[in-house]
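Exercise 7. Predict the structure of Cation diffusion facilitator family transporter from Alicyclobacillus acidoterrestris.
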Amino acid sequence: MAREHAHHHHGPGDHGHHHDHGDILHTHAPAGKMGRAFALTCIILIVELAGGAISHSLALMSDAGHVLTDVFAIGLSWFALRQSVKPADEKMTFGYARWGILAALLNGLTLIAITLWILWEAYHRLEHPSAVHSLWMFVSAAVGICINLYLAAGMRDEENLNVRSAVLHMLGDAAASAGVIVAGIVILLTHWYLVDPLLSIAIALFIAFGAWRIVRQTIKILMEATPQTIDFREVVGKLKAVPGIHDVHDVHVWAITNGQNALSCHAVLDGNMTIRESQQILRDAEHCLAHFGIGHVTIQIEDGSHPHDNRALCKAQDQSGEHHHHESDH
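Solution. The predicted structure, encoded as tokens:
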């Protein structure tokens, strides 16, 4: 039977073969917000660097170091969002959507690096406490809280993983700034200067926890793992239940970027079926997969005589690069 590929880029109610540009239009909004976030974060950096230098507060300087990472991270996220709307071309057939995933990964790694720096500086401060002037801690941290909460609130509903990583930076800064104010109050009332490096350690641990979650998510996408929101076995079961499909194999489910899921598989149909007759089966399969949030579908149809393994997962390749279960190339 001739091989046929079904390409699906639309919702369950539309079976025309076209590309949906809704994601591209949606991306312009967070890109504009990210540009504003970049400018305002630069203001926070300047204020906290000045306040940290004047007050001699490690907690404030640690937060400023985190903000410096934010300036880089948000700037990179902004660039990635602009790149991700570029259309696919012959060299990048999936488009540039994974710029955002790469940016999110780099953001997470830089957060981990700044965490190590904060812990190192806090260790030295615990050994040699120094006086801290609380007034400048209050002023600088208050500026940081107000701006970061304003920015995070404006982007809190975005699903883009890259934007979410930037929002994490902002919330982390706001929490750190709140801690700096609390530390300033303690120092003002008790002159217990050890609270400053102790707070720095708490900030570092908070940053590290969120950073690891972002890194783990981005690695899964780059490794083309099955998205967490999709049950692989359920997808296979639903495909096999589509009338006219006798079996499916070589099934792959992955995410091009956060929220853009894809699937490819081989489907075994009746060998006497015409191409026209197979179209309804393909449309039913596309409709079924749309309910799982899978919007990019490629189905290769075969008859029962085509060499294949009955397992849904493709077997590992041997050293020669040939599939163990294929007698000829697919």
